[in-house]
Design brief:
This protein is mainly α and about 100 residues long. The chain has one domain. The protein is built from three helices and no strands. Helix 1 runs antiparallel to helix 3. The radius of gyration is 25 Å and the shape is rod-shaped.
């Protein structure tokens, strides 16, 4: 029976978590389209359509931001746990070697 080896690029996981967090911040910082262009559009049917779109976008943006926050948090926690596990395994291997800290 052959074993399975897990490889995780902790730096890449952290980088991905940071990128997701940056996307979330950019979405949160975006202004409402209606507020930005209302004066230029006026009270036409285009303004109504833009208002509908912007309202729907705001709702979906808030949900996406919540999801992005969750994904970023998970990725940071995963990186922390992989790093901790790697350190624990390295310590156990060092202590199990002749002359290691756990040797008597």
């Amino acid at each position: 029976m052959t074993g399975t080896h897990l490889k995780a690029d902790i730096g890449q996981i952290r980088s991905s978590a940071d990128a997701v967090a940056a996307i979330k911040s950019a979405l949160e910082g975006s202004e409402s389209l209606v507020d930005q262009y209302a004066d230029a559009i006026g009270q036409s049917s285009l303004s109504g359509a833009l208002h509908t779109f912007a309202t729907n976008w705001k709702i979906h943006r808030e949900k996406m931001c919540g999801d992005l926050n969750t994904f970023s948090t998970w990725a940071h926690k995963a990186a922390d746990e992989y790093e901790k596990t790697d350190g624990d395994l390295a310590k156990a291997l060092t202590n199990s070697q002749p002359g290691g800290q756990g040797a008597s």
